[in-house]
What we know:
The chain is an alpha/beta fold.
Amino acid sequence: MSDLGLFLTQFIRRPSEIRAVVPTGRAAAREMARVISPDMPAVAEIGAGTGTITRAILNRGLPPAALELYELNAAFCDRLRQLFPGTRVHNLPAQEMVNVGRRDLDAVISGVPVLALPDDIQTAIVGAALTMMRPGAPFVQITYGPNPPLSETVRNRFGLRHDKSPRIWANLPPAQVYVFRQKGAT
């Protein structure tokens, strides 16, 4: 089954787990992976889905053993294990990374649709990621809306500043990528 076929099947079967209508496009995935370099010892991708972003991360030269993937959907996890041997795939929500993942992450790349989530869940996800990340590491988030994907309350709570990409028209729907870092971090 193709990635799109798997995605649509899971979207129909488990709509509460899948909040996007189609997987992230290659252009948006490349933009999300732009912060990755081959010398990073530890990176996490949350909301890994069918692996479009994963592929872009590994195409940046990151060794598979340096990449941990978090995904709620078990069928997607099976596909990720099949497509990306050597990565660590966790069938867990992003906020559980503090219980199983590596610390001192050099980046967290998020395909989780945080814009649609309430502040308490955004706080749990971002808080878990920041706990696991080294100081100054980027938290990269895709969004389809016109505003930052993390609420102002969450950004202020964690002291986050951000840069954003131009709109990526080659994605369906058009997307932007935000790179968040804690204020004062380089």
